[in-house]
Specification:
By secondary structure, the protein is an all-alpha fold. It has three helices and no strands. Helix 2 runs antiparallel to helix 3. It is elongated and about 55 Å long.
Length: 91
């Protein structure tokens, strides 16, 4: 059971409060801080992708017609598609 967990909006707000938004400033100290923030956001992205992969993998033993397994697989695919489109859109 997932009692006492933060919801998605709370997690997003917390991450934004904890990790700077990286930008190029043209000033060494600020740019170094941006590099640290990029590393932190990359770590967050890696964990998120790993958790999504784990969720998808957890459905591997479920019957192909199991409704909740289908929903989990579809949700992971939707997230992966959003990431793919975002990356292909300019990065």
């Amino acid at each position: 059971m997932m009692a006492n967990k933060l919801n998605s909006k709370q997690i997003s707000s917390l991450l934004e409060a904890l990790i700077d938004t990286p930008h190029w400033y043209g000033e060494t100290n600020a740019d170094n801080e941006s590099l640290e923030a990029i590393e932190a956001w990359g770590d967050v992205a890696f964990v998120a992708l790993q958790k999504l992969t784990d969720a998808f993998d957890s459905t591997s033993n479920a019957p192909k017609t199991n409704g909740s397994a289908i929903e989990i697989r579809d949700a992971v695919r939707e997230n992966a598609e959003v990431f793919k489109e975002y990356i292909q859109g300019g990065y």
